Structure formats: C-alpha cells, structure tokens
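Standup notes
- DV: blocked on the single-chain target, sequence here:
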Amino acid sequence: MSTNNDLNKYLDSEYWCGFIKFLHLQGAALDMDAPKTSDIIIIAGNSHSELANLIVKRLGVSIGQCAIYHRSNRETMFQIGDSVRGKDIFIVQTGTKDVNNNIMEMLIMAYALKTSSAKSIVGVIPYLPYSKQCKMRKRGSIVTKLVAEMMVKSGMTHIITMDLHQKEIQGFFDCPVDNLRASPFLLQYIQESIPDYRNAVIVARNPGSAKKATSYAERLRLGIAVIHGEQKESDADEVDGRYSPPMVPRSRTMDAGVGVPIHIAKEKPPINVVGDVGGRIAIMVDDMIDDVKSFVAAAEVLKERGAYKIYVLATHGLLSSDAPRLIEDSPIDEVVVTNTIPHELQKMQCHKIKTVDISILVAEAIRRIHNKESMSYLFRNVTLED
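- DV (later): unblocked, structure below
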C-alpha cells in the first residue's frame, strides 16, 4: 500500500486527471483493502447490470444472490437469496428510460432488506431519477423531494450518486448523500483523446451552464464561450392570434389589480455566441444530454462561426427518442458520456457516441464507506462551481 505522502502527492496534482491516475495506480491497494465478503453484499437491480459487474470486479466481491422480476400483472417481486442480517448492503440502481420501474424496484429492494435486519442500506444511484424536477413550477410539485423521502422511508441510510442536476438536491434527503463528480474522467478524456486540445475553447450551451464550463476551462487553462438566445421559430410556428381566447367584456367594478405592476414577459434574442470560436475546437459541457435538439442547434451555430471540430461532453447520456439519428446527421464530431446510464443500443445506432468508465470511482466510494474511511479524498479540489 502507498503511504499517506503518496496519497497526497497524487491527490494534490495540478489537474483532476492526476486523481484518476491515482485511482488506477492504487489498483493493487484496492485489492489488498477490499472489503470482507462476509460483511458486505452488493445487489444489482435490473437497470444497469453491466455497471454493477464492473464495480464488484474492482472490489473483488461477488453479486449478492437475489431475484427481482415482474409478475404477469407487472407487479415487482424481490427475493433475497442469502441472509443479510447485520451486513452492509449496497443497491446498484440507476435511472433509465424505464424510470418508474427503476424507482419501484429500488424501493421494494430497500424495504425488503430493511425488514430483513440489514445493518445499513446504501443506495448507489449514479443518475438520480426525476432529478430535473427539483424546482417548483406553477401548480406542479417538486418531484425530487418526493422521491428522496420515499428512498429514506424505504430504509436507505446513505446515498451515493453522481453529478446531481442541482447540488441543493442533497438537502431533500434525511440521510447522508455523497455527490461524486465525473469531471476528472472527462477532463482526462479531453487531454488524452482530443488532438490539439490546447487549441480548444470550452462552450456553455446556455448561460445556466456557464459555471460548469468555467470550471473546465480553468482546469485546462482554456478560453470560454457562451451561447445565448434561441432559434427563431418558423412562420408556421409563430403565434398569430388565431388561437387566442375570446375577449372578455370589461367589468363595471374596479379591478383589484389596478396599480400592481405586471412582470414584463421575457423574450430571448436570436441565438448568438459570446466569445471567439473561429478556427478552434469547440467543446460543449453539461451535466446530462437527453433531448439533443438544443445541442444540435448550438453545434450548427458554432460551425457557422468557424469552429472546425465540435465535441459534446456530459456525465449522464439519456439520449432519448431519436437522439442517435440527430447526432449522426449533425455537425457534432463526438458525444462523450459516462456509463452512469446504459446506452449500448444508442451506440450501435450512432458511431459518434463514446463512453467513459466511472466504475473505479464508485467502487472506491463503496470501499471507503464500508471501511469507515474519509470520503474527503474523493472531493479534493472540488469547488462550489463543480
């Protein structure tokens, strides 16, 4: 095993990419410090068995014996094959297109383990389902809060996740939450797999993702550009008043709202690029990529402004609907995502999609939690903007 000085040497490196190399160099140490198989059980749901297999392989343990399936009426059934009394249980389950089944499977598994006297139940959820519905919208609800309460109520005592859509989501949980970061892996990909990345500029697809883009740019010592505005609608999509409600006759009584100023409606300008991308490599960064239409529109504008190569990097690759076809027909050269969400089918439909493996980080987080070690090593140099 390496000494504490060795750990500090790797973790105090200039770039986060050095941290990834540290994890790989510590492979032997991981095997030596692997948790005892008698104290830990890792159970995988049906959402991402490939990631679960990579995690247990790195930890040197085996997948727990269990069965989770659906009856003819679509009810979820879960059966545990071994005793879990007094043991640390880790449930590996992520959000996919079948998101509602993913959540129910996870809740049923956690509750079954709770009633079977498990010592602790840790949810390993690389992509937290419903994480985009974390703000109040008119008469809607904050669905992420509901999901968090259900997870804790079902018996989960700890959550491991990655790149939450909003960091404040951690406050919805009444249990500890470790929000891991995938940016070191993506930074390493930029440095090792993008030729002439020094001639690149980090692009924020909208002003909301400018903080993330700034974080990448500062670590890579690159410039930044921000895309602002939106595409103009076609004449057929413009509102011409034909579908407006009928005029309501003015009331004879005085309106209660007289004198109360009304918010001026927002109107975004035509899509524009703030920053110079001419003759440069444009690298768009975001936390997730689902509906790719906005990414494709941004790529077309960047191409018009002179960018000769366009990359899109994101942690979570949902790639819903016809995203692979749109990417294939777009000016985007590569879409790089991690394996927090399975997307093998999309990769077969589009050769531009590349995958970065983050299982080593999740495995190290599991090992540290089980061995009651500090998690601060995994968050070295993480700032509020990351």
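- Follow-up: Residues 1-15, 28-32, 233-239 have pLDDT under 50 and may be disordered.
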